[in-house]
Structures are given as C-alpha cells and as structure tokens.
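Would you mind giving me a polypeptide sequence along with per-residue structure tokens?
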Amino acid sequence: MNNKTHKICVYCASSTQIDDQYFRDARCLGKLMAKAGVTLVNGAGNMGLMAETADGCLEAGGHAIGIIPSFMIKEGWCHEGMTEIIETTDMHTRQRQMAEMSDGGIFLPGGCGTFAELMELITWKQLGLYLKPIVILNTGGYYDSMLNTLYLAVAQNFMRPQHADLWRVASTPDAALQMALDTPLWDTSIRRFTKI
C-alpha cells in the first residue's frame, strides 16, 4: 500500500441508531489508517460513525484531527479525545478546511450532511476545483440507490461519461483506504467536459 498520502478525511454519520455493520467498518477503517501511518481528519463528532472511526484510529496509536464549528462545541457534540481540534466559525468553513487539509476523502454511510458533503466534493471535482480521490465505502450496499442515480445522470446526459470516474466505490474498509491512497489526482483538463 502506498502511504505517500498522509491525511484522509472520513465523512460519515453521527447517528447512533444504526446497524452494527456500519460501526464495524468505521472502527476497522480507523484502525487501518493508524496502522498505515495515515492521519484521520473528520468532523470531530463524539457520536456515531465519526466517533467510532476516531476511536479505532486513536486506539491503534494513530492521529485524528477534528474540524468542528463553534456551535457544535457549545452543544457538547465535540469528541474531546481527538489528537487535535480545529474550531471553525460555520459549516461552510468546516467543509472547506476538511477538503483542503486532507489528501482525499472516504465516505462512509451517513444522512443528509454526508450526502451534501459527497455531492459538494463531486461537484468541485467535476469543475476541477478539487483533484483528490473520492472513495465511497458502500457497506452493505448502502449507497446503491445514490450510485444508480449518479449513473442515471450520466446515462441521460446530465453528466458526461468521464464524470463517472470522479468517484470510486469500495466494499471493504481495506479496499477503500487503498483506493484513497492509490488513486491519482484528477486531471484539471477534464474541466472542458463540464458543459454538456
């Protein structure tokens, strides 16, 4: 595994009322990142898959950087055990810093917030504004419907065929991490395909 990439942002749910398979994959990914010497970047949440990934990473001796807006800290939602916590003024700044600080993103199952982050990064990459790997960890087929919608957008010319390469899909944490580390940077020349 090529670990020249040193920081990977993991985007995922804060929900605690979800199936155990999601927690298992989240913790496993955190441990794998630590063992590979890759720093975890996430939203610093103290619940759900965000906390599970961070705990797995930290327990395996890794480093975990959390980026979180002030209002979430005031609500008591911040994971206090992170190696480093970066406080932001708002959600938009948080998202920008998560993308800028990391060398790629892995998306675990999540809700509206995770969906929004995924769509934003795909859009930025389509426009040549974000060139790093985007990997979807499709635990239990969670993202099947969303992926079908994206491929339908390609099939019906809302996106070009080249845009189906903006993201990669993995079925295991190990495969997701390897894809995040090995996928080359996106070619900015693809921007010419943005307009259909």
Remarks:
- The mean pLDDT is 95.
- The beta strands are 7-11, 39-42, 64-69, 84-88, 105-107, 134-137, 168-170.
- Residues 86 and 161 are 38 Å apart (CA to CA).
- DSSP finds seven helices and seven strands in the chain.
